[in-house]
Structure prediction request, 441 residues.
Amino acid sequence: MKIGRSQIDRVKRKIAKDYPEFKGIEPRVTEKDVKPQDEWYKKLDLGVPKHFRHIYRLQFTKSVKTADRVPIERILMVTLDEKFKIIKVIESR
Amino acid sequence: MLILSGKKALHKQIRDIRPLEKQIDEYIESKKGYKTVFCYYDMPNKLRIKPVKKKAKSIRSYVMKVEKKMGTIDFLLLLGGDDVIPFFRLDNPCDDGDEAVLSDNPYASRDDNFIIPERVCARIPDNQSVEFMKKQLTKANPSQKKAFGLTAKIWKRASENVYRPIGDPKKLKTSPPITSDKFRKAWLQKKDFLYFNVHGSKISANWYGQQGAEYPVAMQPANIKDASGIVASEACYGAYIIGKSQDDAMSLRFLDQDRVLGFCGSTTISYGPSAPPSSESDLLVKYFFEYLQQGMTSGESLKNAKLDFARKALRRHGFLDDDDQKTLLQFVLYGDPTIRVQDNVMRS
Prediction:
């Protein structure tokens, strides 16, 4: 299913609340089919791989400057599952 | 253990390689528990393996050939920086500012699945100094049972979770208010573990804190003097050393200390959560500390941390996503991989 505007806006509101520095930034939206990663399951003796997954990624990017004027690109990535549920939020270090 | 370098390239970097070769002989002699072989990939050797050129893929093939001749290589120690043994430039799984991920993972893998390492791999950067390299092979630090940690203030809760295996989370310092001006050198001295969860940059030597839109200089190379212990940093580019020296790379500055036993960090842009549960760099470093605390060598600790990280991510979501994969590829270990933080833990 294609992610709609309302879902994107819902994530944007959540991010604006929890990560105010990314408020007002329009995320880059991508989606991806994740095939069962058999070889990694096998290499780690982890039994049977899970089924196909479909995930959405909303990437918020912002350029900032440090106290000594060094430019840093700040990235915040939100991963959503098939049901548009947020499964992970991470930031660049 | 295989110790590997490139003679011509190493000579170009540090000039007089004889003192280092002597040090390597002494190191091998001291490592009684390891069957150790030292060879140059670009020179004829006892194993009768054809020398190869200074290319990451060729050097990796060379390692595989050595393994065929001498049996399983559990520990691989690369001597030299990118100009001697190039990092692999792997496709960046994430859509961020890094053109490629600099990685040593392929040297640690026996198959083409580089994400999951099978052997310990560490690197001793040359820093264009024979004394610097020699020093890495003779390090020791009596156990101090103390740790130091510094985090950007916005990641305090996340960092406390990482720091817990090695120290009291209440004692974790945050930036702000800590800045390089207020940084006390003594904080880094007489420690077993040094932990940093801060911002880093490819073009700056400094590490940065954060609170809101404020990014103070949390630390700079001059803050490091007589530091000790094993360092793990989540900073972006914390382990980026190409074209750098101890004056403009925190990792090399730490390694230049007599009692800093190793440095674990990221070669590129790294990621982590702002609060628990730990994921990405936070999770990897947490596992790294847990294994060190259990008495494992630094090399085994990083390898096991990567395996546990991959298992956890697969169990959590059923797959390794782009940033999980990048985390596994980008973290490298500098220093002697056979060193332990607390020898007494193993003995007990």
Chain B touches chain A through 48 residues (CB under 8 Å). Confidence is low (pLDDT under 50) at residues 344-348 of chain B. Residues 298-317 of chain B form the longest helix (20 residues).
